[in-house]
Amino acid sequence: MVSAVQGLKSPLSSSFPSISRPRAAARNRSSARVQVTCSSSTPENTPLVIEKPQMNDAPPVTGGAYDFERATSSLAGKLLSSPKKVTIVRHGLSTWNLESRVQGSSNLSVLTETGIIQAEMCRAALSGMHFDQCFASPITRAKSFAEVIWEGREEPIIFLDSLKEAHLFHLEGLRNVDAKANYPEYTMWREEPVNFNVNGVYPIRNLWLTAREAWKEILLSPGENFLVVTHKSILRALICTALGLGPERFRAVDVNNGGISMFDINTRGEAMVQSLNMTAHMYTNHVYH
């Protein structure tokens, strides 16, 4: 038997101190009365009334961070005039992706037909977002991808050398299977990229310096909402430098062709990752906001 409930009073109310809430949030919150009738064999059956808050413009209830000050070090090196939002996209499938070749900074690999379709899907997926500027690598496969996404917008794309892919010297253009069979340094590139070097030049360590340069160029530009189109390795470096991770964590993150990542940057130049390698738009008609 379920006993009738005469009223509702939380037993916790006397056990914990009251929590003050922002007045603005309180003004925007209204309550809805939800009535629940409990079954009972007693004649004193009474409806249970629960005050259910409607949040409206109140703080989110899904656990979002209140702030992220000092979560990471500044990417800008100085105070920004306003917070920024940066959306970073990896270019679509290229010819050398398809042929499993080492791409690096080579300009010989171009978008495949699938890669162009992926660019169109990204354009549709990002159609619900406003961007003040678009930054892209000048290497053809990223440049072409950015041009498809940015089509129809008045502002010109800004091409940054700091968004170019890592330079991998003589490995570029080789099929991965051939590079592995004929060049011992390829194994170092795959298994311990932070120590991969050619004649004393360390591409991944240098990439971290380049990524920090790219962040400064982007964040110190006019506007608040930026779109960035680039390559996998430099994208890994952008993500890791934003989160305070060193080049030894190069392979700790991965980004698919057409994958979208989003960062919020506060006025101190500190970053918080909001999403990483989103690909729902590659399989559905999902539109981001």
Automatic annotation (TrEMBL):
Active site: 91 (tele-phosphohistidine intermediate), 165 (proton donor/acceptor)
Alphabetized InterPro entries for the sequence: His_Pase_superF_clade-1 (IPR013078), His_PPase_superfam (IPR029033), PGM_Phosphatase (IPR050275)
Binding site for substrate: 90-97, 141
Composition bias, Low complexity: 10-33
Region (Disordered): 1-57
Compositionally biased tracts (Polar residues): 34-45
GO molecular function: phosphatase activity
Taxonomy, superkingdom: Eukaryota
Membrane-spanning segments: none
Protein family: Belongs to the phosphoglycerate mutase family.
Name of the molecule in the record: 2-carboxy-D-arabinitol-1-phosphatase
Organism per entry: Linum tenue
